[in-house]
Design goal:
This protein has 214 residues and is an all-alpha fold. The chain is 66% helix and 0% strand. The N terminus is likely disordered.
């Protein structure tokens, strides 16, 4: 076989950059989950989608469970970057008002609905009830929630919200409320966009009133 024939044959295999393979696998896994559902995802199908050998994904993820945990972990990273852009600030005396709360709510819900393939794994009971949950996923999830709690404590310390508010309980209740709204949308129970906007504004009003409670 000639050198030209060898070169021609080599181009038939989809190339990838070795340093980016883990990233490509995560992105491809999320895409497969979005298109076909989590149950349809397999390590073999993932390898085929990326264009690598069947064993290549196992160099980065020991099995499908580890892969799903990694996808959920990536989801938390993306979630934190998008949702906390305005709320998470290094300035303790940053302005906090109802508009900021409303923006936070809309970003939360927009992320959940637009990234259901991540969100379902991030808060899915089948992962969190598993005995094979990775430590890195636990850390990423904990960090996402801690950022929210710490921000409320920061506002409180700066005198921007009521001293009577319990930051942890406030964060737990408000986060749970947004999660419930998001699930109703993802599951197709609420489809009216105007109603969703009104619900988001009502939630912002309630959250803000609680922060300002005497």
């Amino acid at each position: 076989m000639s050198t030209s024939e060898i070169s021609a044959g080599a181009t038939e295999v989809k190339p990838y950059h070795h340093g980016d393979l883990r990233r490509q696998l995560l992105d491809a896994a999320a895409n497969l989950i979005r298109e076909e559902g989590e149950a349809a995802l397999s390590m073999r199908k993932l390898a085929l989608a990326v264009g690598v050998s069947r064993t290549a994904p196992y160099h980065h993820f020991s099995d499908k469970q580890a892969l799903l945990c990694a996808v959920a972990e990536e989801g938390f990273r993306r979630f934190r970057r998008i949702v906390t852009t305005r709320l998470d600030t290094s300035e303790p005396a940053a302005v906090i008002d109802e508009a900021a709360i409303r923006l936070f709510i809309r970003r939360y819900i927009d992320f959940a609905v637009s990234n259901a393939e991540y969100y379902d794994l991030m808060f899915g009971g089948h992962l969190w009830k598993s005995e094979q949950l990775t430590a890195s996923l636990k850390d990423e999830a904990y960090t996402s929630f801690k950022v929210y709690v710490d921000q409320i404590r920061c506002w409180q310390k700066a005198g921007l919200v009521s001293a009577t508010v319990d930051p942890l309980r406030y964060a737990q209740v408000s986060w749970s409320t947004l999660h419930g709204m998001s699930r109703l949308l993802i599951d197709g129970i609420y489809l009216d966009s105007e109603a969703v906007a009104a619900m988001s504004d009502a939630a912002a009003n309630m959250f803000w009133q609680q922060l300002q409670a005497a």
